[in-house]
Design goal:
Elements lengths: L6 H7 L7 E7 L2 E6 H17 L7 E5 L4 H12 L3 E4 L6 H11 L3 E4 L1 H9 L7 E4 L10 H10 L1
Parallel strand pairs: 3-4, 3-5, 5-6
Antiparallel strand pairs: 1-2
Helix pairs in contact: 2-3, 2-6
Length: 153
């Protein structure tokens, strides 16, 4: 009988698959390929960064973004940090989105720049910290992103 595997053991074993293709994203400018080694590097680095900015076991972290490779990294990194992933449909109406975030008590939300303004308008008891998946380090909205990334280095 084989030993049971956990999501954490899956994360730890990603790099073992080396340069084999793990992710293929079709974009307007052409396909983007990530190897298992790259996926592991991004995921484990971000998981470490999340831990450094205070995300821990049992915390809820929401993911509000359209499908993109960074969504997968964020999801796996949240699991790697011991937190709970709360995927949120980007098509929800604002009232529903506010309820989901309120019920989940998410302290952090991985999202994209186009969703960040929407999130900032919501009437929630506690505003979650936003981590943007699609902006560069020079963008002023990247405070949490910079903290997570710099802690991962």
């Amino acid at each position: 009988m084989s030993e049971p595997r956990t999501l954490r053991s899956l994360l730890d074993s990603l790099a073992e698959h080396g340069d084999r293709q793990a992710v293929l994203a079709i974009k307007e400018e052409g396909p983007e390929h990530w190897s298992y080694r790259e996926l592991a590097k991004h995921t484990l680095g971000l998981a470490h960064g999340l831990t450094e900015i205070g995300v821990g076991r049992g915390d809820n972290v929401a993911l509000l973004a359209a499908n993109r490779p960074e969504w997968m990294v964020a999801c796996l990194a949240v699991v790697g940090a011991g937190a709970v992933v709360t995927p949120v449909d980007a098509q929800l109406a604002d009232a529903q989105l506010g309820r989901v975030l309120g019920y989940s008590e998410a302290r952090f939300v991985f999202t994209t720049a186009d969703q960040s303004e929407r999130l900032e308008r919501l009437d929630t008891e506690v505003a979650p910290r936003l981590v943007l998946l699609d902006v560069g380090e020079d963008d002023e909205r990247t405070e949490n992103t910079k903290a997570a990334v710099s802690a991962a280095r």
